Amino acid sequence: NVETKRQGNAHQSLCPYETFVAKDGFFNLACGNDNQFKRLCEELGENQLLEDSRFVTNAERVANRESLIPVLASHFTQRSVFECLEILQRATIPAGPIQTVPEALEHPQTYARNMILEHPHPVMGVVKTVGAGLGFPQSSYAKLPPPELGEHSISLLEEVLQYTSRQIKTLVEKEVVVGPARGSGV
């Protein structure tokens, strides 16, 4: 067995298969075989890479990653993410943008999967939260709004950790835990 080494966002046994920088953002590309690499080189106008013995097979590309990636990166940094993805789509290579949090939250797929949940909150009005993107029914979790600071401290200490009222009172007095804002009864 060979222990794998960290490669950041790169795949240890496939190349190129990693994150690249475009002039306006980042994207992932997953070139998983020699035919995909050939199509990528053709789309980029880098046919000489196909004749370079260092890059003919995936194993050789992996071994010579440090020489190959800068050549590809120089093409991508000159283009927008959208332009890079168009090239990769024409080459039928799996790829996708790396989005910022606001971009991901505004993406149509986020809404299509009903991932933005709205909860009535007693102080803040309607609070939006993010649901799971794993296909779980949204009704199976996240039925409550986010708690206020200390809202559940006392009940967790009592019910989960089995603390006594005296222990809890001491923790609140010493400000080790925060009790609920609206009277804890402690």
Task: Give your account of this protein's structure.
The protein has helices spanning 34-44, 48-51, 58-63, 65-76, 81-90, 101-106, 108-112, 153-160, 165-173; strands spanning 17-22, 25-30, 95-98, 116-121, 125-130. The protein is α+β, with helices and mostly antiparallel strands and 186 residues long. The longest helix is centred in the middle third of the chain and has 12 residues, at 65-76. The N and C termini lie far apart (59 Å). The model has no long low-confidence stretch (mean pLDDT 88).
Question: What is the compact description of this entry?
Answer:
By secondary structure, the chain is α+β, with helices and mostly antiparallel strands. 38% of the residues lie in helices and 15% in strands.
Shape: elongated
Average pLDDT across residues?
88
Q: What's the quaternary structure here? A: single chain
Uncertain segments are none
Biggest β-sheet, characterized?
A: 3 strands, antiparallel
Query: What order do the strands of the largest sheet run in, or round the barrel if closed?
Result: 1-2-3
Strand tally, please? 5
Could you tell me the strand content as a percent range?
Answer: 15-25%
* Estimated helix fraction: 25-40%
The CA-CA distance between the termini, in Å, is: 59 Å
Summing up helix and strand content along with how strands pair, one would put the structural category as: alpha+beta
Radius of gyration: 26 Å
The run of helices and strands is EEHHHHHEHHEEHH
Continuous helix count: 9
